[in-house]
Predict the 3D structure of the following.
Amino acid sequence: MTGDGLLRVLATLANPHRLRVVAALTRERNNVSQLARELDISRVLLQVHLRKLEAAGLVTATIEVSEDGKAMKFYEVAPFTVLLTPKAIASAVRTLGIDSDVDVGVRS
């Protein structure tokens, strides 16, 4: 993993709501409404977190049409592994972009 990719993944996962979303999606794929109810957060807030998780490559989404014609977006965890060792960090640091430390909003 590149340094920028590692920063993006770690920054994305450094939020308790996003950790809860990933944990919930490991049990089963789900749509926004059901997941918001399960996690007891608003759909708007959940969608913000899902977009960040999707941008980091940690979840994927598919749109399905229900029998009544309603489009529903389902999310599931994407396969990923983050190996965080001193050697992996040293290797990733060599590939950091110049502005890497500017973009990492941990609590956004």
